[in-house]
Amino acid sequence: MDEIINLGNSMIQHGKHNDRVYLMKLDKNDVSDVLYNIEEKAKENDYSKIFAKVPYGCEKEFLAKGYMVEGHVPEMVKGENDVLFLGKFLKEWRSKDEDPNLKLVLEKALRKKEEGNTLNNENKLISKYYIRLLDKKDSKEMAKVYSEVFETYPFPIHDPNYIEETMDDNLVYFGVFMEGKLIAISSCEMDVKNLNVEMTDFATLPECRGNGLAVNLLMVMEEEMVRRDIKTAYTIARAKSYGMNITFAKLEYEHSGTLIKNTNIGGDFETMNIWWKKLKK
């Protein structure tokens, strides 16, 4: 699995699993050192991509080195300042995704958004299930669900010990249960300092899909994040997934970019869509 390293007050992940360097957090005082280090890491390991989250105003040195803006999240830092999502493609094959379905998925999701809120009927389905916060005693069952849903994943969510560790590190998990069995999961990865959250790690058992569970999870997640004074929510969703893109569109998230062949999920490098929303009390 890819390794996470702290560089000053910044954080990167790198490894062969995703064949990339991922700049997860950048402190404005670390820009020059971090840029040098991620370039060296990519060169040493012959990676095919560098993916970087860069606060607006810190991007100049990156753009001068050949990075391109793939997307952004407005008001990501404390509900005020934007963050750019930059990519640098080090091998030609990584810079293109010619799957025609990706455009169709996004177009359908955007049409759903234009149609307005259609959640009332889906809310009725929740009576068959119940949703609650998950804790460490759920970790083995969570790992089992993730193992069934994902062949591979950018982080070791198939490992109960890893899941338990993340619960101590600003991750909050939610689960849908039916007759006492965990059937769907999601998580909120909070950046408490900057008041933003990534809505992520959605997984529903195959036999339980098509019941609006992800939409219901997302509504509960938003309520919990508002309670915790988080200002901005975003996701990086699989571009080929009708369900996930439509879920965020239905809840009035805005599409703000596409990350080409960004993440190894299910044994393939997948293109991802960025969706974001300003949370309101």
TrEMBL record:
InterPro entries: Acyl_CoA_acyltransferase, GNAT_AblB, GNAT_dom. GO terms for molecular function: N-acetyltransferase activity. Pfam families: Acetyltransf_1. Keywords: Transferase. Residues 129-264 form the N-acetyltransferase domain. SUPFAM superfamilies: Acyl-CoA N-acyltransferases (Nat) (SSF55729). CDD domains: NAT_SF. NCBIfam families: GNAT_ablB. This is Beta-lysine acetyltransferase. The lineage of its organism: Bacteria, Bacillati, Bacillota, Clostridia, Lachnospirales.
